[in-house]
Design brief:
Layout: E1 11-14, H1 20-24, H2 43-48, H3 56-61, H4 64-68, E2 78-83, H5 92-103, E3 108-113, H6 126-141
Parallel strand pairs: 1-2, 2-3
Length: 146
C-alpha cells in the first residue's frame, strides 16, 4: 500500500448512529440532574443547524446508511457491536446499517451485546468486545492476529 492510500479498509463501529432521520424519532433518555452551569448542546442543532425534520436532506447526508447503499463500490468489511438495550442509540441503528451494507454486498458482522446499554454498560465482558474488535481489524488490515 503506497503512502498516498486513503481507502477505508475495515470499520469497527461500537453503538454508532447510522440513520439520523430514524434516530430523531427515538426519544432521548432522561439525563441525570446536572448543575445549572453544565449545558449540553443539542446534537441535531450542532450537526445540522436544526432538527432532522427541519433539515431532512442534511440529516440524510450525515447518515452512514445513505452511503452504504452506494452500489458503485463494495463497502469495506464492517464489525458492528451494539448493546441490545441501548437507551441513547437504539440497537436498531446498527441493524439498519447492517441491512444496508449486506444489500450492497458488503461483508458485515452484527454483534449484539445482550442486555447492554450505551457504552456497553451492563455487559460483564467488555474485554472480549475489545479483543474481538482488535482481531477483526488485524485480520482485515494485514496484522498477525486471527
Amino acid at each position: 500500500m503506497g503512502s498516498g492510500e486513503t481507502a477505508v479498509r475495515a470499520v469497527v463501529d461500537w453503538y454508532g448512529v447510522s440513520d439520523l432521520v430514524a434516530l430523531a424519532a427515538h426519544p432521548m433518555p432522561a439525563m441525570p440532574a446536572m448543575p445549572a452551569s453544565v449545558v449540553f448542546p443539542d446534537p441535531y442543532e450542532a450537526l445540522l443547524g436544526g432538527t432532522a425534520a427541519e433539515r431532512p436532506a442534511l440529516a440524510r447526508a450525515a447518515s452512514p446508511v445513505t452511503y452504504a447503499a452506494d452500489t458503485t463500490a463494495t463497502p469495506p468489511p464492517f464489525l458492528l457491536v451494539h448493546g441490545t438495550r441501548d437507551g441513547l442509540v437504539p440497537y436498531s441503528q446498527s441493524e439498519a446499517l447492517a441491512a444496508a451494507l449486506a444489500a450492497a454486498a458488503g461483508e458485515v458482522v452484527l454483534q449484539p451485546v445482550e442486555n447492554a446499554d450505551h457504552i456497553f454498560l451492563g455487559s460483564p465482558d467488555v474485554p472480549s468486545i475489545v479483543t474481538q474488535s482488535v482481531t477483526f481489524l488485524a485480520r482485515h488490515l494485514g496484522g498477525t492476529r486471527t
